[in-house]
């Protein structure tokens, strides 16, 4: 139901833009169908394609009015939501699964979300507060060389091969 209403609204806006356009500059060429992905599912509608006599390029006035990149076929709201989920979630795959649970079907892949993040304007990126702590903890797999043991050529060797297993000191 929402898709039908949004399609009718977009076609009405496009019709108003067609009537108000500079007819000497923009020549109506065709009415083309397009489908965009939104937070509420796919929306299919028809929009006017114009030839811009000044630039010699073809354009969609509706796309320019809405700030929408029609070639991408993703609504700006869906794009912003995907970028924000990618920032909030721990991975692009988790962001894709979360977006799928919101929309109801797999609307964007994790790689598509990654590309949106890379292409996102800086205004969508939130600054990270700078905090300086007195202690820095670093966790890594492998051998552990505490500062005191490095000078004495001692090291710890993991006996079990997995985290939390017993370790012993060995001379290097």
From TrEMBL:
InterPro entries recorded: UPF0236
Q: Where in the sequence does UniProt note compositional bias of the Basic and acidic residues kind?
A: 148-158
The superkingdom listed in its UniProt entry is: Bacteria
> Region entry Disordered: which residue ranges?
148-172
Give the family per the record.
Answer: Belongs to the UPF0236 family.
Protein name, UniProt field: Uncharacterized protein
């Amino acid at each position: 139901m929402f898709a039908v209403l949004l399609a009718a609204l977009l076609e009405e806006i496009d019709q108003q833009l067609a009537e108000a356009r500079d007819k000497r500059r923009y020549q109506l060429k065709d009415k083309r169908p397009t489908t965009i992905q939104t937070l509420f599912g796919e929306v299919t509608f028809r929009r006017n394609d114009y030839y811009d006599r000044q630039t010699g390029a073809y354009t969609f006035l509706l796309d320019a009015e809405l700030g929408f990149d029609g070639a991408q076929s993703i609504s700006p709201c869906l794009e912003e939501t995907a970028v924000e989920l990618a920032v909030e979630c721990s991975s692009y795959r988790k962001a894709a699964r979360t977006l799928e649970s919101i929309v109801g079907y797999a609307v964007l892949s994790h790689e598509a979300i990654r590309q949106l993040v890379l292409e996102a304007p800086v205004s969508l990126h939130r600054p990270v507060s700078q905090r300086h702590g007195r202690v820095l903890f670093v966790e890594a797999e492998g051998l552990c060389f505490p500062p005191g043991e490095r000078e004495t050529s001692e090291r710890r060797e993991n006996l079990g091969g997995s985290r939390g297993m017993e370790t012993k000191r060995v001379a290097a």
